[in-house]
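Aim 2, interim progress. The first record below pairs a target sequence with its structure tokens.
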Amino acid sequence: MQPEGTDAKRQGGSGGVTRAALLGLCGGMLLGGLFLLGAGIKTRLSPPDCSELSEMECTFTRDAATDMARVQLVSGAALMSLSAAVVVLMRSKARPAS
């Protein structure tokens, strides 16, 4: 039989690994959200080149780029807010109740 003290240490160690994994996941989601926001802003501000396209093709290309930029902006903002929410949730659970 092992003493109860080593059992508590083992549980605390796995909690630290889980916390570190969640922080890494949140960091990745935050970077992905920033990248999507940047790509959406770039796509929104710089219209596609229509020099070799007909007017109908150019209109379709611009509409598609505008819609894609909107999706990128919304997805980036959602990823960033989700990662921020998980970090706040983890921080509130990390503080011991007194």
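The second target in this work package is listed in the same format:
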Amino acid sequence: MNLSDEEKMMYSVMDALFNSGIPIDFKGAMVLKACLMEAGYPEETRHTADIDANWYSEIPPTASQLENSLETALKKSGVNLHAELYRMYGEGRSAGIELSDPTTGEVLFTMDVDVNRPVQPSQIYVVEGLHFRGITPSQMLADKVSTVSSHKVFRRIKDVMDLYYFSKVFEPDREQLLQALQNSGRTLGDFRGFLQSTAELKHAYEKFRFSGGVNKPPFDEVYDTVKDYLKDVIPKTV
């Protein structure tokens, strides 16, 4: 699996924050990519233009503490980027941070940071010598299955795609999945949208764009693969 220059830069940012001791764990597509690479997945996966993270601290950080902590960490690691908060976190809302070229001011990618959400199990990942702490594969799988089982599936087609990737390298364990859902306070829906509204789901999939020339498999292949992958957790009565 090849990494784009942008992805390498994002991993450099994650490595810098990890080395700084800032109380941040990562999640989302960048962790998924690292997880798949460690499992030996050979093909290209969907690209992303942001980093997703969880910040944990006894006292919630102020806006200036968020910015200053990130700026200091990047400078200390020699990552030549400027971090600027453009959205403060709040109830049900993550903090939004822009990472830009300090010379031109061009925003290269963004970072979404949830503050003091329920703690998720994590582990250390290494990508081309860059280290960071990210949520575990089992927790990532549980989060995506929870979304796909709900009506949110139509707005989160990328989670269906990610389960397609997961199916190539990880065997699902029903009991482990249910435990991960319970630990994170998530629930398992009835999968009605996924199972009974395939035309609507296909429409959403066709609209979902893959950047960077990454292969987009046919919808039927993705759908059938994911449906079979989740057969042990999909209710038999739906």
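The longest strand covers residues 107-115. This observation will shape the mutagenesis plan for the next reporting period.
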